[in-house]
Amino acid sequence: MEKGTISIHTENIFPIIKKFLYSDHEIFLRELISNATDATKKIESLAALGEYKGEIGDTKIKVTLNKEGKTITISDSGVGMTSEEVKKYINQIAFSGATDFIEKYKDKKEEVQQLIGKFGLGFYSAFMVAEKVQLVTKSWQEGAEAVMWTCDGSTEFEITPSVRPERGTDVILHIAQDSEEFLDKYRIQSILEKYCKFLPYEVEFEGKVINNTKPLWTKNPADLKDEDYLAFYKELYPISEDPLFWIHLNVDYPFNLTGILYFPKIKQDLAVQKNKIQLYQKQVFITDEVKEIVPEFLTLLHGVIDSPDIPLNVSRSFLQADSNVKKINSYITRKVADKLQELFKNDRTTYEAKWESLDVFVKFGMITDDKFYEKATQFLLLEDIEKKRYTFDEYKDLISTNQKDKNDNLVILYTTDVEKQDTFIQSAKKRSYNVLKLDGILDSHFINTIERKLEKTTLKRIDSETIDKLIDKGESLSSALTESEKEKIIEIFKTASGRSEVSVEALPTDEFPITITLPEFMRRMRDMAKMSGGMDYFVSLPEQFNVVINGNHALINKILGIENTDEQQKVAKQLYDLALLSQNMLNGSSLTAFINRSLEMMQ
């Protein structure tokens, strides 16, 4: 028998491990099975190098639950350890066997399979749930004897001779009273399915293999059919609709990365779309929080990313930023943009049929990622009120002749609600102006983004000004009213409306007598505030709008001819309320009064 003290440099290391090393105690099972996977990969590597001459045999990793005995055992047939290796790799916390192994064979790196463990702390995650841990192991080396390492969570250990017929390791956890939830077989089953579903070696629990050892992303894309990708999507997301299309990632320089990204049918709700990409490291599930790996807009995609080159901190679940992450980030962004460009060029009809789902995704990318914006200008589609779609260049060509102002600026007109803003849309149609439909959840931000990017171009909502001011071509109509008549009509409508922002303009006679316009800047700020939260100042501001009187309309001249002041105010109020109604701004008691007044005037 040999006794000794574990070599550590921090007092009370086990309470620290139990409370702080991992955010979720269920991680212990992932870490121990990852270690078993490493041990199995090592024996295969040694065999490939010709150092191990024996049979590889069964590489299955077994998880055994003994509820009555309150133990969980993880068994492998990997390299195992000698007594000296146990003292070296187990007793010295944070000394990684995997790191040492790679260093030893660094000159033959291409022949050595990459290993999962790099931190040497995964084994000690066992003490998050166990009051005592036993490790029974037998090395692959000829003549090696089995040994048992035992530790009760203190800094003391015990190594004794043991019996194990074959090479490999058993880790036996004696579950602590406060962790007996892990003695439930369904709990263990769910953890295994979460973290080990795609491990490269079979994992057996309760007599059944729980994992797919060769998931789709590890296969050659040339060998796969559409049905394979769709079936794998259902394996990942059983209750989701079929995806629109997918990208198979496979790169080995300047970093290693494989995976499959699917484009789902995206609804107009970003919150429910995110965090569906699963991050793996050598087929071990790490997290579905991948915003450090991919730009935020790509979190709308679904699928799998697997890379040994993604740097993780000691608990693996938290990513660390470094140059590889930036390279991976850029690579995935480029691949996604290239895929969209390819689909657009090869089959625009099919691409347009999928645009309803792609719209939010592409615009989110353009708003948040400048590099993606540059590429996306080639496959973004703008939709007008007639449901026709155009690229940026196509749309510029369409409106360049008719929709330029006196300063040669291109003016893009848009509506956020085709039905409610129909009055203003009809005015635009009279002048053969085209109107875009920008009514999506991101469009208030998207409008600001493209306006910053496009030269000599401005976007104006169709109801933010009278039509001749929206696209000011420097032309002016003569007014039918004298200056004194203008002043008089302004006073009449200030009284009728209770507002001070009243002006008279010389507009075409076929335009409405009164128009309510919403200033572009304030309206944009309010729309953005409602969408993104914050900016409460803009949300809380009272609705600001202007009252514009068409001085050339016959009804305005008629009001000036009414001698009875009450009757004059009645007609003015009626016209004002009609203008409010056209902007969906008349409600409550004001709407009731308008209806009653209308009935009275019709009698």
TrEMBL record:
Organism superkingdom: Bacteria
InterPro entries registered for this protein in UniProt: HATPase_C_sf (IPR036890), Heat_shock_protein_90_CS (IPR019805), HSP90_C (IPR037196), Hsp90_fam (IPR001404), Hsp90_N (IPR020575), Ribosomal_Su5_D2-typ_SF (IPR020568)
Swiss-Prot/TrEMBL keywords: ATP-binding, Chaperone, Cytoplasm, Nucleotide-binding, Stress response
Residues binding ATP: 31, 35, 76, 81, 96-97, 169, 316
Gene3D superfamilies documented for this protein: 3.30.230.80, 3.40.50.11260, Heat shock protein 90, C-terminal domain (1.20.120.790), Histidine kinase-like ATPase, C-terminal domain (3.30.565.10)
Molecular function in Gene Ontology: ATP binding; ATP hydrolysis activity; ATP-dependent protein folding chaperone; unfolded protein binding
Pfam families reported in the protein's UniProt record: HATPase_c_3, HSP90
NCBIfam families assigned: PRK05218.1
Membership in a protein family: Belongs to the heat shock protein 90 family.
Name by which UniProt lists this protein: Chaperone protein HtpG
